[in-house]
Every structure is written in structure tokens, then in C-alpha cells.
């Protein structure tokens, strides 16, 4: 049985790479993330193929536009059968509320299981320097908690945030709120372009419900062994 708290990011642009990694990881991983690199090149086939393999899919396209456009986009994406979709919380309360309401209505109308809808708070690549450059008044962690609280009020199921804010979000948004954390790196691993990071165990201890992990598995010399080590560390929490 796979640990459904682990979501492996398939940041590839060919289905050959996807098939090969999914085959190497086998039963270890049951939940995959399809993001813009894969979806923009391969399209819906990436999601439908993973569903045919019995895998759950987080379709991470980070929609960010006016309320009507995002809600319509989400309703189109829902038909692909992903378990989770996302928008940018920076689109504001009205965009998130319209999106959640329309997605639920459309799922009920079509008789679909409604995918979980989560909001990206502050990207995990953003460090203090980038944050200051944006001229933001609040500290990053306060902004993340504010976005998470707005997402909850708007009827979303959870957020994407860094593991460094997970404990604060858990406290503000309660035990059932999804906290999906990228920016996860095993001790000693390269941080790549991530800024606000933690280890898999630390992320779970802080209250993350799911860990999104890409390069530490995908770019490892032995992805199966890398996934095993991460899963073993996760079991300790
Ligand atoms: O929404 C996301 O999944 C996401 C949000 C965020 O703030 N940071 C972030 O890294 N991600 C995604 O999570 C994955 C992290 O990949 P690695 O850095 O390779 O582990 C990438 O596919 C990113 O697109």
C-alpha cells in the first residue's frame, strides 16, 4: 500500500518519462502531481493515463484570473478526473468563493465526485529578498496564514504552503484543512530553487497533510530507493 500523503511531482514534458518513472516507483506511490510542464505539452492524456493506472492526480495548474474565468476553467478541468485542483489565493476571496461554489454546483449537476480545491498561498520559492521586492507589508508567514484563512472562509478544502508555515495554518484553520507542502527536502539534499523548506518528517510534524516532492525522487540516481527512504522517514511521524 502506498502512503497517500506523498505526492510525486511529474515535472516532465513527455509521456515516455512519465511512464518510465511511474513504472519504476510501482506501488510505492499512489498520488502524482501533473503540473504545467507536462500538461501544456501532453494535455489531458497525462491525467487520464494516470487514472487508468489507478493513481490519484493533483492537477496543479494554479489558476489565477477573474472569478468567472477561473470558475469556468476549473469546471472544464474537473471532467478529467483529478482528485485535487488549485488556484492562486492571490486572486482574492471573491475568486476563490465563486470557484468553490461553481465547482460544487457543476460536480452535483454532472454527478461527479467533486475534486478537492486548494489555494496556493505564497510560493515556496519566495524568500525574504523576493518578498521585499514585491513591497509586501506583512511578514511571509502572516501573509500565508491570512491567505489560508480566506481560502477556508471561501469554502476551499485547503492550501499549498511551505512546511515552515504548516503549524500556523493548522492552528488557524483546524484539523480537517488540507495543507499541501512542496519545498520538502531530505536532510542534505539540494534545495534547488526552493527557499522555504523542511525535511519530510519535519513537514508532517508541523501539520502537513500531503508532501509534494519532485526532484529529490525524480532526479535521483535511483528514484525507487529515494522514494523508499522518504517513505521510511514519513513512517516515523
Ligand atoms: O502548487 C505547487 O505544487 C507548488 C507550489 C509552491 O509554492 N511551490 C512548489 O514548488 N510547487 C510545486 O511543487 C513541485 C516541487 O518540486 P521539487 O522542488 O522538484 O520538489 C513543483 O512541481 C512545483 O511546481
Automatic annotation (TrEMBL):
Catalytic residues (UniProt):
60 (for ompdecase activity), 62 (proton donor), 62 (for ompdecase activity), 65 (for ompdecase activity)
Q: Name one GO cellular component term.
A: cytosol
Cross-referenced InterPro entries: Aldolase_TIM, OMPdecase, OMPdecase_AS, OMPdecase_bac, OMPdeCOase_dom, RibuloseP-bd_barrel
Its keywords, alphabetically, are: Decarboxylase, Lyase, Pyrimidine biosynthesis
Q: Where along this sequence does the record place binding of substrate?
A: 11, 33, 60-69, 124, 185, 194, 214-215
- One GO MF term: orotidine-5'-phosphate decarboxylase activity
Mind listing the GO biological process terms from this record?
'de novo' pyrimidine nucleobase biosynthetic process; 'de novo' UMP biosynthetic process
All copies of the Orotidine 5'-phosphate decarboxylase domain together span 5-230
Is the keyword Disulfide bond in the record? no
The annotated pathway is:
Pyrimidine metabolism; UMP biosynthesis via de novo pathway; UMP from orotate: step 2/2
Q: What is its EC number?
A: 4.1.1.23
Reactions catalysed: orotidine 5'-phosphate + H(+) = UMP + CO2
In terms of superkingdom, the source organism counts as Bacteria
Physiological role: Catalyzes the decarboxylation of orotidine 5'-monophosphate (OMP) to uridine 5'-monophosphate (UMP).
* Oligomeric form and interacting partners: Homodimer.
Q: Which family does it belong to?
A: Belongs to the OMP decarboxylase family. Type 1 subfamily.
Protein name in UniProt = Orotidine 5'-phosphate decarboxylase
Give the source species.
Answer: Selenomonas montiformis
